[in-house]
Amino acid sequence: MDTVTDQGSVTITTPATADGTVKANADTGAIGIDLPNTTRTKGIESENGTIAYPDAAKNTDLAVQPTNEGGVRALITVNNANAAKEYRFDLDLPDGAVTEQLDDGSVMVLTDSTEDADVIGAFEAPWAKDVNGNPVPTTYRVENRALIQTIAFDQNTAFPVVADPWWNPFSWNWGKIGKKLKSCGKGSWQFINGDALGKSYTSNSKMIARKLAQYGLRAKNVSPQGFLVAASAGCVTGALRNWK
Fold first, then answer.
1. Which end of the chain is more exposed for a tag (fewer CB within 10 A), N or C?
2. In the beta sheet, which residues pair with residue 66?
């Protein structure tokens, strides 16, 4: 599936069988996402483009759903308490790429580990819900180039439980935007509070870029210019003072 979004061009390739690899190719880079604990169940495509893999793992159904924003969702349906509680998505990342987990549990993939690294994309914060729509505790961890989702259901959980690892690629150059904000913030703080304070609060463009990328997960229709204007205003008002 090819998708052209406001953020750039994205190609999502779904596997014919559940033991295959989902491939997401965006302007910032390509990654592969292996489906977890699966058999060779053949995919069944629905009218909306979702590929379902029934009984792909023990007591578990899987589905892959390309999104209009150019991302892809891996839907896990846990049918009963005898299913696995951990689901491992092996990741095929570009050479040199690293992961970074944010406070909300989401996991960003960066081009490298340097201060100037760009964001390739991110797995949004994990969630899981029971059949009544109630949240079920769930977390991500990254281990040996794999994203592992743990779903903490028990015998009292109302099944089925649905969880949804959601990959969103980024096509904006967050590193460059961060550098622009660094310059903006430095000038603003120097004007208001003097040179020393300006350097103190604006030297970390990497931090600013990460924060923008995190907020970008929830505001995909905002342009980079819109983020730049909003965050520049934050430099002036001191909002960035509270970003840690």
1. C
2. 72
Q: What does the DSSP assignment read for 169-227? A: E--S-HHHHHHHHHHHHHHHHHHHH-HHHHHHHHS-HHHHHHHHHHHHTT-TTS-HHHH
Do 161 and 153 form a contact (C-beta atoms < 8 A)?
yes
Residue whose entry in the numeric block shows the structure tokens 């913030």: 185
Look up the pTM and report it: 0.73
Q: Does a cis peptide bond (omega within 30 degrees of 0) precede residue 160?
A: yes
Other CB atoms closer than 10 Å to residue 232's CB: what's the count? Answer: 18
Is residue 201 within 8 Å of 244, Cβ to Cβ? no
Mean pLDDT computed over every residue of the chain: 77
Domain boundaries, the chain: 2-169, 174-242
Average pLDDT over residues 206-223: 50
Instruction: Express each pLDDT in 86-129 by its tens digit.
Output: 999 999 999 999 999 988 899 999 999 987 788 888 999 999 99
Look-up of token digits 């000038």: 187
List, in sequence order, every residue forming a beta bridge with 78; answer none if it has no partner. Answer: 60, 161
